[in-house]
């Protein structure tokens, strides 16, 4: 497994071919193919995908709620990050206090996430086998050519004091 901090290195050494978008945009090229596990209808995930596409990447959107996850496969996205950071802090069960990410071990966290994928921190990103959860990792920002995520992390509905559409 390649941990998330090596996404940029994986891109450099993977032999990923660059190809031109079109003759209308000769300065834009595809740098990577990114599997992007999102919650359909999530405004923040939509903005994140647009940012990656604008940076020249191919983004393949997948529904995080319908993916048939296995615990070990899901675990690879979290690498060596603290267990509490694996969770979507905007999930209803966390906001209600039913689930406390700060008091859960790894096996329990994965079991909860398999039963309720809304608990999984989004997006999950896979670039040539290099995986991570969330959009605030240095390696993800490097895909954008940025040092900061600006407004690309965090729930848009919380910022606007509205509710996210339920799936």
Give a structural overview.
With 167 residues, the protein is α+β, with helices and mostly antiparallel strands. Helices cover 30% and strands 14% of the residues. It contains 7 helices and 6 strands, in the order αβββαβαααββαα. The chain is globular and about 40 Å long.
Radius of gyration: 16 Å
- How many H/I helices? 7
Secondary-structure element pattern, one letter each? HEEEHEHHHEEHH
Helical coverage, percent range: 25-40%
- Major pleated sheet: 4 strands, mixed
Summarize the structure.
By secondary structure, the protein is α+β, with helices and mostly antiparallel strands.
SSE topology sketch:
Blueprint: H1 7-13, E1 19-20, E2 29-30, E3 33-38, H2 43-54, E4 58-63, H3 71-75, H4 92-95, H5 106-115, E5 124-127, E6 130-133, H6 138-144, H7 156-160
């Amino acid at each position: 497994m390649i941990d998330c901090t090596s996404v940029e290195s994986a891109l450099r050494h993977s032999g990923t071919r660059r190809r031109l978008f079109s003759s209308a945009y000769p300065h834009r090229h595809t740098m990577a193919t990114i599997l992007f596990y999102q919650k359909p209808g999530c405004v923040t995930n939509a903005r994140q995908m647009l940012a990656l596409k604008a940076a020249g990447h191919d983004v393949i959107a997948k529904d995080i709620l319908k993916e048939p996850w296995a615990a070990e496969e899901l675990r690879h996205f979290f690498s060596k990050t603290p267990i509490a950071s694996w969770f979507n802090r905007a999930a209803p069960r966390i906001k209600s206090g039913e689930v406390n990410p700060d008091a859960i071990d790894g096996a329990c966290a994965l079991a909860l996430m398999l039963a309720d994928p809304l608990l999984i921190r989004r997006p999950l990103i896979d670039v040539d086998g290099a995986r991570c959860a969330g959009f605030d990792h240095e390696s993800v920002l490097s895909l954008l050519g940025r040092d900061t995520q600006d407004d690309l992390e965090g729930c848009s509905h919380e910022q606007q004091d509205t509710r996210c559409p339920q799936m």
